[in-house]
Structures are given as C-alpha cells and as structure tokens.
Amino acid sequence: MRKLLKLSLGLAVLCTPGLLFGSCCTTCTTTTCYSGCSPKTILIPRGAEDLVMQTFRNGYSYDNDCCFWGNLSLEYKYNRTWKECQVAESIFPRQTLTFVGSNVATRTTNDLIADYFGMATDTNIRVCLNPLIQFHKFNIGLTLGLSNICDGLWLQVNAPVIHTKWDLRHDCCSNCSTSCCSSSCCSTCPTANTALSSTAFNGGYMNHTATGTTAPATVAPLTNLTDALTGKVFGDMTEAWLYGKFCGCDNDDTKVGIVDVKLGYNFYECPDYHVGIYLKMGAPTGTRLDCCHATCLFNPIIGNDHWQFGAGLSAHADLWCCDDCHTVTAYFEGYVTHLFERSQARSFDFKNGVMSRYMLLKVFDENNAYSRLINAINYTTRCVKVRADVLGEALLEFVYRNECGFGAGVGYNLYGRSKDKICQVCDPCSSSMKTIKVGFKGCAPVQPVGFLTTTATETITTGTAVYNAPSSILSATQSNATAFACGTVDSAVELYDAATTGTPTSGFVYLDTRQTATATAGDLVSTLRTNGLIASESATGTVDITTAGVVTGLTLAPELITTADLDICSGEAPSIVTHKIFGHLDYTWTDCDWTPFLRAGAEVEFASKCDKGTLNMWGVFLGGGISF
User: Fold this and answer.
1) Residue extents of the structural domains in the chain
2) What residues contact 42, with CB distance under 8 A and at least 6 apart?
3) Of 576, 268, 288, which is closest to residue 419 (Cα–Cα)?
4) Which end of the chain has less Cβ packing within 10 Å, N or C?
C-alpha cells in the first residue's frame, strides 16, 4: 500500500503541470523573421532563478527523527556583467555607433543617419557604449519537511529581494576606437565632445508653412547629445519620444524577484542517498514589462514578468566516506518550467533593418496629404501577448565535509531559456498612434523650394523662391530607406514643367530643400536634374505646375506603413544558454540542537561570444541559516 501511495503521488507530481496549466496562446505569429541574428529591442537577463544560491540541498532530511523539520536561510549575492561588448551588441548593431548626417560625403553603410535624431545634416560623431548591469540579491529561503502528512513530502519557498543598476554608459567621442570590445573607450572623453553641429536644417526639409506664400524658416538642429538620444522635438516633429530613449546613467530599481515555490516528494531517502521530484511555480513579482517600462531601452529588469510552472528532480549520493569523518557527496538538481502567456509591451524594428524604429515617419490625413513628423519609436512600441516554451536549470555539485563541520564544494550550473513567442500584436502604447496613417520620410523633403524657369533655354530666371503653400507640401515617402541610408521616392513624379499652361514662355521647377535652399539665375535645369536636385512627389498620373507654384493633377500615393511591416522577431527576446562554475566554503555547528551554518563562495557565468541577449557575469555570495 505504501509503495502504491508513493507511485500515485509521483505520477501526480509529473502530470499536474499539463492538467493545471494549458497555454491559451494558440495563434502565435508565424511571419518570417527578418532580424535573424540581429540585435533585439529588449534585453531580458536571467531571472531570480538560481540554484547556486541554495548551495545546500534542503529538500530532504535523513538524520531527523521528527515528523516535522525545517531550514531557514538568508543569502546575499552580488553580480555584475563583464564583456560589455556582448551586452551592447545584444541591443545595438555594434558597440560603437556612428551618427553621420545625410550630407556628409564620406558616410558609410555602417553610419546611422543623424538627421532622424534631429542632428544636423553635417554631423559626424561616434558614440561608444560600455553598458554595465549590477545585481544585489537578498534571498530568504524556507524549507519545511511535511512527513507528518506524507513520508518524504516537503515544501520550499524562496523570495529574493533584488536591487539592480543598469548603466548604458554612452558618450560622444571623437577618438574612440572602432574595434569591438575596446577597453573603456569613452572613459577619458571630455564632456565637451557632446556639443553637436549647429548647422540649421534648410527650410522645407524638416518643416512646412501651413498658409501663405512665405518660405519655410530654417530649423535649428538638436545640439546636445542627450537631447538627440532622448527624442526632443524639432521642426514638424511636435511629439517627443515616448519610448526607447537612451536614458542616463545609473537607472536602478528594487523589487521582489520571482517568488519560487516548490512542493516535493522524495521516493527514496537514506543516509547516503536520496531521489525526489517536485513541482515548481514562479510568480511574476518582479518588473512589469508594460508601456511605462518601455520608455527607456535600457530600463532595469528584475525577473521575466511571466507566471511559470514546471517540475524538477533532486538527488544526492555519497561517493566516498572514511569512518564517518570525511565524506565526498555529489548533488544534482534540475527543473524545467513553462512561461505562460502574458500581456507586455515591446518596441519593434521594421522589416527594413535594425534600428529602423528610430527613423522619421510622415503622418498623413485621410486624403493622404502630409501633416507632421513623428519618430517611429512612438508608432512601433506596441502592446503584445508573449510566452516562452521552456526555461530550465541544472546543477551538479561535489561537496567535501568532515566531522568538525567544515565543508567545501565546487560545481557547474547550466541555465537556458527558449526564445519568446509573440502571439498577438495589439495597439500602440500611445493612444495618439492608434489611427494615424504613416510612411517613411527617409531624406525626402517636406516642402520643396520653387523657382520660375524659361522654357526657351530651361534656365532659372531668378534666384528668388516662389511659394504657394500648402499646395507645394510633399507627401513623398521613401519606403526603401533604412536607418543607415536614404531611399528613393516611391512612385516618383519629377516636379518640373517646361511648358506651363497659360504662360508658354515660362516654366517651373521644385528643388529638393535638403540639397539646396537657393538657386542662381541662369542655372540650367538639365544640370539640376543630373545632380538630383529636382524634388519628386509620391504620385501617379501627370504633373501640371503653374507659374504660381501650385502642384496640381497629382494623385497622392505615399507608401503607407501597416502592422505587417513590423519585424515581430526584433522584439522577441532570443533563446539563451549560459554556463556557470562556482565554489564555496561552509561551516556547520553540528553539536547544536538548532543547527546554524554559514557559507561563502564565488562564481563566474559565461556564454558563447555569438549569443545575443546573454550576460557574462561574475559574483560573490555569503549566506547562513539554521536547520531545525
């Protein structure tokens, strides 16, 4: 009968996860991943799950004659990251970011377009990133033996209180090494380097005039790096960044981490070995990954914001014993849990590449006419439903103890988590983004500069611009633009007419304001065309431009962005695998009724150099408690 009870309880422990928790996420996104091995928009570190902090296996007691026993422990651990390059490349294309304006002739394919961030078109700076993450963990653990209910039954609760600091440590450097993992390249950069170019944007490139015939005024760029990387407004961009900001240093937070509850049953429990299984449940008591958390791209994260449920195995066996004075014992523990669907918020890149969430978008009215600019990060930050199939951890440890209470151990810990699966992409976090129509601005102007020409020689007749706003406002989009390169105008119609109706001796030409804000009398239109200075509109059909500068006969045809253009994979935390080696010393007062113990140790955690989203960390821990 006793064996039957053990078998029944064991089967119940193994089967309960599938019976109690079934995933309601059955319609996960199956779109093609465009991001591949690219960095993600979120970095979710290893949660509070940590078998190393429970260095003594407490889920059994073979030398206690009482039906009820327990173990209470308090442990402190300090962890910090190393290999800053790997942390940086988990969320950025590289450790060094270069911001180069669209008018810089020497810009390369690795240079982000500075214009999108409000920096001048002649900007040429380098920003180095040396991110640092630190954790202070205080774990309170309680294990209770429930043999008075059933032989071998036990319950364990771990409640970690965690304080963490996340510092992006970015600075603008003119002498920074471009090689990855250069040692603290920004540590000696003078703060004066954060002053950016003050060259104004040409009128019409980032702004327009709503009424009248006056030319758009020039627009002052952002001249402070902090303003540019936190999304201050400029030109027609009247709404600052709400999400994804490059926030300042020392972002910190303190929360209760993942509260871990285990209910276990030991099939075999002898002085020199035991084997048991347990149920494990984790509560999302750490950081809430909601829209508020998405305001900064390097905001601290504690835990993983998921309910999780699974099962585990624990065992030990004495490998060597000398007259009960010296023993060497092997310990094993491992578990697997499922992270259930949870409503969170994620920022996404577009399918046209990494960092595209920081591109400029044109906003259109119901008639597809341009109205204003926004940064894409406000549009691509969405509410989502997300889950992860598997999270697991395993530990193998060898411990030496002697009759005096001294002990020492070394071990190996393996940790892994499968990639996120975003099951549903919902509305933008910002309510103002829910119903708007948008398209990629790229380097297309907003309002071009108009000049009269003579059809006889196709030359500019005067250096004075002619405007008739808002008819000259462009809805042109560049859907093939990226964060690193300007695109070409979609369905382009050249805004030039050499035979204007009603004035056969006169024509009209619109010039791209990013290239030139003025024209000189006598300039040849053919030269302007060759140099790519004539503005283009996104349109179908023919163009008819009168001498007054009114664009007519155009069917506005911007390429509009939809949710299908989001790269869903860019917002999914990748699968991670880390390896940890650790060692510890401990002492137990064996001659006491209530048995106190102390332990101290150190650890190093590492991952493959190519793995995105993993953290290489080192740490030290100190703990103690009592057994009763």
Assistant:
1) 2-76+140-157+249-437+564-627, 443-476+491-557
2) 91, 289, 346, 347, 571, 573
3) 576
4) N
